[in-house]
């Protein structure tokens, strides 16, 4: 089934199998990166190692799948038309898949980059990246491009950023309690 390198990198099956088989490599990369950063006195070696590898490995296979060539170009610019069609045919896998495309970016991005520590910024960046992918799919890859894909990809990133919010949210400044000092007055 996966006998040539083209079958590994140029088919959905190959990308999925490669992504799953690459999980131990990703875990090893995370461990080595964390150890390396810890030895260099990095302020948060494990957090950034997990975020870097999770961001990369959680997003790469999905984007790779989206960039595989298709057979015919189609364009759907009516918002939610494809979602309604998929729901009417009970094709939940397509919807869930589109929500998960940038979920790792939404979850790990704010943990790694201070500039992404806003759900709105995650939504905006994921929407821009998804739009670029959809344009590439339509113009160069002969695939179906849909505004619903952009909406679902962006929503998935925003929802995932909410899941990680407790680890990157702004913390209120802690003001130390004032200690009362007893002042003795002369009698």
Which descriptors would you attach to this protein?
mainly alpha; single chain; 187 residues; two-stranded parallel ribbon
What's this, in brief?
This protein has 187 residues and is mainly alpha-helical. The protein contains 10 helices and 2 strands; from the N terminus they run H-H-H-H-E-H-H-H-H-E-H-H. Helix 2 (12-21) packs antiparallel against helix 4 (45-66) and helix 4 (45-66) packs antiparallel against helix 7 (103-112).
Commentary on this structure:
The chain is mainly alpha-helical and 187 residues long. Helices cover 66% and strands 3% of the residues. The chain has 10 helices and 2 strands. It has helices spanning 5-9, 12-21, 23-39, 45-66, 81-88, 92-100, 103-112, 119-139, 147-163, 165-168, and strands at 74-76, 144-146. A two-stranded parallel sheet has the order 1-2. Helix 3 packs antiparallel against helix 4, helix 7 (103-112) crosses helix 9 (147-163) and helix 8 (119-139) packs antiparallel against helix 9. The longest helix has 22 residues, at 45-66. The protein starts with a helix and ends in a 19-residue tail after the last helix. 24% of the residues are buried. The mean pLDDT is 91.
